[in-house]
Write a structure and sequence with these properties.
- The structure is a single chain.
- The protein folds into three domains: 3-69, no CATH class; 73-177, 2-Layer Sandwich (Tetrahydropterin Synthase, Chain A), CATH 3.30.479.30; 232-268, no CATH class.
- The chain starts with a helix and ends with a strand.
- The chain has 271 residues and is α+β, with helices and mostly antiparallel strands.
- A hairpin with a 4-residue loop joins strand 2 and strand 3 (44-45).
- The chain has a three-stranded antiparallel beta sheet with strand order 3-2-5. A three-stranded antiparallel beta sheet has the order 6-7-8. A two-stranded antiparallel sheet has the order 1-4.
- It contains seven helices and ten strands.
- Keywords: Membrane, Transmembrane, Transmembrane helix.
- It is found in: Membrane.
- The chain crosses the membrane at residues 7-27.
- This is Band 7 domain-containing protein.
Length: 271
Amino acid sequence: MDRLPKIALPVIAVIIVLIILISKSAVTIGSGEAGVLYKTFGGGVVTDKPALGEGFHIVAPWNRVYIYEVRQQEVFEKMQVLSSNGLEIKLDASAWFQPKFEDLGRLHQEKGESYVDRILLPTIRSAARSVVGRYTPEQLYSSKRDAIQQEIFEETKKIVDGQYIQLNEVLVRDVTLPPTIKEAIERKLKQEQESLEYEFRLVTAKKEAEKVTIEAQGKADANRILSASLTDKILQDKGIDATLELSKSPNSKVVIVGSGDSGLPLILGNN
């Protein structure tokens, strides 16, 4: 009986050590995450193998796993940039991005966990300054918002693609101009709109006048053609037809006593 405690103590110690080792060796990677393995005695960051995916993993207790979010993320940035004529513009933008899963080891080794602050944000700022500097405040305020957004995206993507970052979209959320410039642009746009409306009214009036002229010309041409086609015989026949119709009227007593100078019957008398 005295020997049992002496045997049990080493077994318990071994079990405790195993539990500690397993707890330090077990790594659980959550949904939308991936792990970069760092081998303390095996060359440091593992870059020639895929990152550790979601789920439970056992690694040597002397190694370490750095966990990264690999789902799409969003970062916001407020910037002050200059337009083509040197005016200060405030730009609010955001970027949708995610680290490239297949290059996660290299990203960790070369850029580190702060890659957003070290690489992505400075690149967005640089691209925004370059792009906005090509446009006037009027263009920024009105018609070029989509073009600016696309150009910032393309210039940023061209750089960060080589830095193991996948850029999905850049969104320009707000462009703020100096108040005096904004008011001047709004007045100019209003004047341009009023001018366009006035021109439209002039064009409409001109087209209406042309329509009336064309209709009048058509009637004149029709009358000329009709006059040219009427002969004395046709006029006489028309007159006879009209006289016969008039003679059928119940309100008139028609007496035909002869013909007039034109050769048409004469109608005398009515009630």
